[in-house]
Design a protein that fits this description.
The protein contains one helix and ten strands. The protein has 215 residues and is mainly beta. It has one domain: Beta Barrel (Porin), CATH 2.40.160. The chain has an eight-stranded antiparallel β-barrel. It starts with a helix and ends with a strand.
Length: 215
């Protein structure tokens, strides 16, 4: 619920910002532009095997490089290269008591986005995304017992290569500064070899942040 409220607040702010700006604050040149971006990720999962635990958002970072390639006044391409933290926070109970479990997933994300800009100040982006797992970290606590484990991408219980989708908005504050909101979802379950230690689920992430166009 908090993730959806944050994204809704960003959209409201985005439209208010668009209405408040004047056209002379934006570049008219239809030229390729390179930029950087970064912000907050609110990651959670969609369970696909009915596992009996409840999950809440896990907060992390997303950021990287963005490239805008206009194909006209309205349509353009926007590939990005990003570091993105995903995962989930789960709580529940077993015969030994209640537990608190966090799984952090560090991904290299490569979204290939179509950008639709009905006006200079506002863009809608959507398209496919390829994600490659870089590393994972899990933390577990129950009663007086706790542990933290970090592993690299040879972990067989987590899918390493995942295709997904992205939809979101960009709002240009001026010629160089923009704010963004994204929703990303996996198209494939992230349960590796299907062992009972790893539930079947799909990553979903709400992202908000800001970026800067360098040229």
């Amino acid at each position: 619920m908090m993730s959806r409220n944050c994204l809704l607040a960003l959209l409201i702010f985005a439209f208010a910002t668009v209405q408040a700006q004047t056209p002379d604050k934006y570049k008219d040149d239809q030229v390729p532009r390179l930029g950087i971006k970064g912000g907050l990720s609110m990651a959670s999962i969609i369970k696909t095997n009915g596992s009996g635990f409840s999950s809440t958002p896990l907060y992390g970072f997303n950021g990287g490089v963005v490239f805008q390639l206009p194909l006209g006044d309205v349509i353009g391409l926007q590939p990005e290269l990003l570091f993105s933290q995903k995962g989930y926070h789960a709580t529940g109970s077993t015969f030994i008591g209640s537990y608190d479990y966090k799984r952090y997933l560090n991904f290299l994300d490569i979204p290939l986005l179509l950008r639709i800009s009905p006006i200079k100040t506002f863009g809608i982006v959507l398209g496919p995304q390829y994600s490659y797992l870089l590393s994972t970290k899990t933390s577990f606590k129950t009663g007086s017992t706790s542990y933290v484990q970090t592993v690299n991408n040879e972990n067989s219980n987590i899918t390493k290569n995942i295709f997904g989708g992205v939809i979101g908005v960009d709002v240009n504050v001026n010629s160089f500064l923009f704010i963004y909101g994204r929703y990303t979802i996996d198209f494939k379950n992230n349960n590796g070899d299907g062992t009972s230690n790893t539930p079947a689920y799909k990553n979903q992430v709400f992202q908000v942040g800001a970026g800067f166009l360098l040229n």
